[in-house]
Amino acid sequence: MPRYQPTDAMMLPRFSGIRTFARLPHVTDLTDVDVAVIGSPFDTGGTYRVGCRFGPAHIREASALLRPYNPSLDVNVYDYISAIDYGDLPVVPGFIEAAYDQMVEGLMPVLNAGVIPILLGGDHSISLAHLRAMALRHGPVALIHFDSHNDLWDQYWGQKYTHGTPFRRALEEGLIDVKRSSEVGLRGSVYGPEDIQMGRDFGFQVFTMDEVRELGFAHVLKMVREQAGTGPCFLTFDIDFIDPAYAPGTGTPEVGGPTTWEALQCVRALKGLNFVGFDVVEVLPSYDSPGQVTALAAANVAFEMLSLVAWSRKHR
Amino acid sequence: MPRYQPTDAMMLPRFSGIRTFARLPHVTDLTDVDVAVIGSPFDTGGTYRVGCRFGPAHIREASALLRPYNPSLDVNVYDYISAIDYGDLPVVPGFIEAAYDQMVEGLMPVLNAGVIPILLGGDHSISLAHLRAMALRHGPVALIHFDSHNDLWDQYWGQKYTHGTPFRRALEEGLIDVKRSSEVGLRGSVYGPEDIQMGRDFGFQVFTMDEVRELGFAHVLKMVREQAGTGPCFLTFDIDFIDPAYAPGTGTPEVGGPTTWEALQCVRALKGLNFVGFDVVEVLPSYDSPGQVTALAAANVAFEMLSLVAWSRKHR
Amino acid sequence: MPRYQPTDAMMLPRFSGIRTFARLPHVTDLTDVDVAVIGSPFDTGGTYRVGCRFGPAHIREASALLRPYNPSLDVNVYDYISAIDYGDLPVVPGFIEAAYDQMVEGLMPVLNAGVIPILLGGDHSISLAHLRAMALRHGPVALIHFDSHNDLWDQYWGQKYTHGTPFRRALEEGLIDVKRSSEVGLRGSVYGPEDIQMGRDFGFQVFTMDEVRELGFAHVLKMVREQAGTGPCFLTFDIDFIDPAYAPGTGTPEVGGPTTWEALQCVRALKGLNFVGFDVVEVLPSYDSPGQVTALAAANVAFEMLSLVAWSRKHR
Amino acid sequence: MPRYQPTDAMMLPRFSGIRTFARLPHVTDLTDVDVAVIGSPFDTGGTYRVGCRFGPAHIREASALLRPYNPSLDVNVYDYISAIDYGDLPVVPGFIEAAYDQMVEGLMPVLNAGVIPILLGGDHSISLAHLRAMALRHGPVALIHFDSHNDLWDQYWGQKYTHGTPFRRALEEGLIDVKRSSEVGLRGSVYGPEDIQMGRDFGFQVFTMDEVRELGFAHVLKMVREQAGTGPCFLTFDIDFIDPAYAPGTGTPEVGGPTTWEALQCVRALKGLNFVGFDVVEVLPSYDSPGQVTALAAANVAFEMLSLVAWSRKHR
Amino acid sequence: MPRYQPTDAMMLPRFSGIRTFARLPHVTDLTDVDVAVIGSPFDTGGTYRVGCRFGPAHIREASALLRPYNPSLDVNVYDYISAIDYGDLPVVPGFIEAAYDQMVEGLMPVLNAGVIPILLGGDHSISLAHLRAMALRHGPVALIHFDSHNDLWDQYWGQKYTHGTPFRRALEEGLIDVKRSSEVGLRGSVYGPEDIQMGRDFGFQVFTMDEVRELGFAHVLKMVREQAGTGPCFLTFDIDFIDPAYAPGTGTPEVGGPTTWEALQCVRALKGLNFVGFDVVEVLPSYDSPGQVTALAAANVAFEMLSLVAWSRKHR
Amino acid sequence: MPRYQPTDAMMLPRFSGIRTFARLPHVTDLTDVDVAVIGSPFDTGGTYRVGCRFGPAHIREASALLRPYNPSLDVNVYDYISAIDYGDLPVVPGFIEAAYDQMVEGLMPVLNAGVIPILLGGDHSISLAHLRAMALRHGPVALIHFDSHNDLWDQYWGQKYTHGTPFRRALEEGLIDVKRSSEVGLRGSVYGPEDIQMGRDFGFQVFTMDEVRELGFAHVLKMVREQAGTGPCFLTFDIDFIDPAYAPGTGTPEVGGPTTWEALQCVRALKGLNFVGFDVVEVLPSYDSPGQVTALAAANVAFEMLSLVAWSRKHR
Questions:
Q1: CATH topology of domain D21-315
Q2: Above 0.90 for ipTM, yes or no?
Q3: CATH 3.40.800.10 given to domain B21-314
Q4: Neighbouring chains to F with at least 3 Cβ pairs closer than 8 Å
Q5: pTM for this model (two decimals)
Q6: At what angle do helices D55-62 and D293-315 cross, to 10 degrees?
């Protein structure tokens, strides 16, 4: 059995104990670790509502409800992987370039130990730091991007680093293997038709929500998988991909998105790809519902990420 | 016309008056009564979030919005049944075995008067008491169980009575006619594949949400109806069967469930079965949304239960 | 380029500035104006929860998230229309007949200037005033009515003017061209089968939600469009048409409604009709979720209305 | 022992049962009744936030926490008085003059039976109806008025009946024995110095909060008691008398008010006066805190009113 | 410098990292430890609102705002004591007697290591287990009890173990040195004059809130200190001692209590007493305000407890 | 009569219309303007909870409840000053040094027009920009600083510009006439005794809350006034000066503060000083209570600032 296991809810109630992701042990020694869940509590990149710095704590709280077996993927996660909660990356709020350096520096020991990170945001600006670290270790990665926005804008108010620009920077910095990359979920009012075209011009395979509704999730996901091939992949999941009825606690919600069930199906459909890292971003606790449905959705998304790694171990 | 009728909203506004279910009279004399709505405000069985003891009051508040005619079933409920709000069963919080005895004792006069109860919970542990009373009156009943969990675990932390174990106990006590029984809605991470297999091993017809999405609600409900046959049936509806976007106010929510419309269709599809009792459980007000959508969903579920009885009277 | 344009979010952040609809200029001079967004903050007609007088402010707040281009209709709205926020109609709370006079008086200069109003309510009683003004300018209009209720009752507690009666009065006053009119979305418990039949008896084309689910949105909307013909149309959108999971902040919610995506598709499907006015009503902020999803839904509905006008200008 | 007694919390838990005030029996027969708690769920008089129609239900919910003995007044309330929850007065929302007639008509049987009413509002406009009924039975009464506003304005927007005008109308109608009457608590920004002078010009003894802080509560209350004399008194308690930190759920809050402890001391200090009626108004649930502190404050104010009557019976 | 120190907020932002109390290290080895903060997440003893099992997590979240120096007591806490977050005691929810055994068993190693525990509840029933452990180690202790209730009732509904009875049981079991013990804060409606007399009859020095307001906090606390003498003391602080405006998130709030400033002064005034343990109980997160003021109050109370120990070390 | 006046609430209800501060006209032409209320929606300086960028909109919403006459200062504000809502200063979120430049640039035309600004924040970092502008126009100003923190730290995590450092920078830049300056309200746990000493060492007159409680507000304010003399003064009011029970919606709350009444008395006591500018900062809407008491407190603080200017005009 893998070394690190969650506290057994049948032994100690799930409402008790220090809050770590899925009740995994909080460990900073990376020996015998396959996957590390890591907070990335930075939110200075937000252009509208802010407060995603509390996202990791909020997701950890809801993740107490997770159990070890994933019936949809038929995998008992902790039979195949040793997983930990590594705590949070160091970040200085308010100074994005300095924080990027801290995040990369904090992440490299994890990657260098051969551990797959699942990063909990934080606003979407953090993904640039995540991708910088990924590329340092693995070279350019395929980006699989679920989001209601493309986050490919060049700048906001003359500034290059915000939560609306990370993938433009990542392209410029050569961090993304764009021909293997896809974007799914774009919707809502935008600044112009170029917002949708932009991704395609850069080489992404792009599916708007209108297109997803027309083609069906199964078809779209099949194309995403085929596009990604066998090289290293990074999955970035913006919680605003999900409809605000299911995930209201986010900074720039867009109505008209998928249900949580549809969203989880999207993640599950990626089984077998060669993931080297993941993030779940834009969870903003102070706008979540009293029942904390956004945190619960994000915790389940992260659990599907854990499950993808376990599935690959089970089937290799 | 049946003896007891709700206060007419066209005469007195629905926001006024003492809160009873659907503005029915609060009556404890069971003469001329067909159906009694009864609170069962017990929540000591909860293993995570608690507070369902306030569920009955919360559902009653939202039920003021209910009107008498059910267009989906084409029945004007109170033309066929005399219905009351019987108040709450007596319960001592904190002591589950003592409370079970009180609940059974409180329920027997209702059953012995030939009245069909619709019980408002309370956490799911209460259904064991409800089934004990049912079996005392009717012998073993077919259980039709909508829920995201199977509630068939043997114990938690060495304890036999919790909201995760009622149906295991009910099977052991011979309260359920399992070959006529079905479970619908299981989903989310579980402890292992045995969580799903368990119900089948006991003899239930089981449909996970993944299976429901694949087979379609119409097909699944047809099989539930056929399984149930003509004998006495008890319908237990855990509000966490419904997706947390539609019913956030509950103790152990699982993402990926049906919409309220789908859930109501499930209840309606059971028309014609021989119901001797119902419960709606796990409504937890302090986690509900400001708009109280969970209470509204539960009130509508209970109204469909009322409608099922009325439909049977109309068509007998 | 049309005269009035929203403040550019790429120049000034969307969280800053005085709250007007979609960050349009607040202007009361109607020269060079095509469409005016106008608050109608009246809620004395409410029969259950009240407080829609704060609806316009709430929608304006959420509307800061709107951007100019509508990808579903392929139209950059402000390339084709000059739009403003006209502020609110004057209303005296508590005195519905006096307020009706004020609203009509306040609206006529807008209509007489040839400006198309998009009115933000307020409870649904306001639509009677809106229709009176419409008819004064255009004669009877086709009513396209999305709502979970028919709002055609004759009276409540002996009173003729409430949010449940506006269209009965409008019919009596000859404001509606009923043979071109449709009602979509009726659902939930009602007072009797006549609630559904009533609209048909008056001459409306009526689709209940059960019928919409059976026939499909595309089919239903096609019939609504055909019914409406080429004459002047008024679109009234009660936010409770949308399911309470997506729009909880309303006064008389009914479970079992469409998603926001389905609801927006309904509005978009009406492109090409000859709209002379619109309203979005029954947004009740104090019951909205912390994430303000109802306001966001309503803002998007109003944006689709703006888009319909722009689409017609683009394609004429 | 008096005939009607609350349900014993030591027998049945306080969270259970149909919600009546202080768990008193809901009775409409006035035989053997000394005090009747009555809802007056009308809120069409509100000029800012509305929704006080849900005030009575909200106060009843919180009142489950009340116990029978008042240590500050040393009286076991139900040893001296037979008290009931009479339900709500009939009211048509939206039509204040019609509602006034209904309220007076609904209240007269109570007064004519010699029962002292404690009325739970509703916005402050209802006090005019309450005073009309009082005067019909007792002639003009001394008004003891705790409030942050004087509610003596002549009109709003040309309308004579709102929650800002009830006592001006009552003076005009001769319902108040003004020379025995007092107003305590006026504060906040007002329209001009006349707002404060107005009450004095009409003959009230007026204490602003600034004056109360300077003179001390004990002194002020002594003067209120002396002013009131031995004739019949009516106590009207606007919950916005209390500071919004302690009572946030109200329609027109004013910062800088007394604590709940100070407010309850004010009511207790009136022991021995000849009260013929009471009301507690302006509780607005949808703006209350999650812990429902406003409802709890109002329930305690009403309990002090019950205690005043019991104290008088004990000491007569 | 003492071995264990909180994470420095000037190095790592306070919003980041795994949530432990005051950002202290989560350690279960008791070597070199002076004080251990320990969760006691049990709430089956609650008789009204429940959910205090989430209290420890809620207090930990708010405690991130605590800094090391206490200016009122002039002590830099971690210069004098080595403090840790020990995690939570094991508890089975729903079975109070079994849980008591677990809690005592979980606490003894801490006491036997000479470590002073600060326990975070949990409802007040847990204090019986805490006192059992204290007495096992230290013999009977002086109880200093801040609370709006006396918690000395004999039983509820025939049950001996609830949050209203712990100190009656503790007296019966000889755990309390009652002649050195005090109760401060009793207020609100009670069942009868015996509720107040009861504590005195048992030998406690009792001060009701009315008495505290009359005598002044300084005088009352002086008497509490003198009563306690030099023997071992246990301080139990029910958060409902504080007024609900300052601490709304609790199960049985009573209006009319002290401010947070007054409450903290009460704790500070006990400096120099010989404390062997502390608890802070009845924090109920789901009723707390969005700003989480109750958790913040409780975290500060616990910090004052830490400060009392540090003060004693500084001045010994 | 001064040129600009608020919309008369007796003509148009206060819940209607575009939200400007106190319903003043939104004007950007500075002719005939005495005082301009201006939003400063920047929050990148926050070190814990963030989101004050929505503070100005939140305060404007609550300010609709303000009326023109201030009874405590006996001044009808708009009889003496012409006041406007100038809108918001331009700010780029996420880049504090760039934003400072924008804020100063945006503020200079106001100051150069001889208009007194009342700035609504935004986190406290903005005050550095405000003081830079003040000093450019007036030279060093006396700072009167109400706050629970000193905001004089040198840096956080190596960064010089945060909401904890503005006045250290202002001292270094020579913007403050420190010998005329005072700080009032410091409390809560701090990093060490130097946190309190620091202000004194820099030359401020400092009063902690403990000292204020001991000396009395009247005495303290007298000393603040005397210290300030007749030169130009700037008043900066951090809403966390007020106790979190009264102002929960803020980023770094500290329990144990003054009531709103006490806080308003503090501002009023400064009448007659030579104020050249004001700010109210740290209002964080997403943590405010449902009744929005923090916004109401802040709106009243700003109204007292308006009143101070009007009082000086009246009495000059």
A1: Arginase; Chain A (3.40.800)
A2: yes
A3: yes
A4: A, C, D, E
A5: 0.98
A6: 70
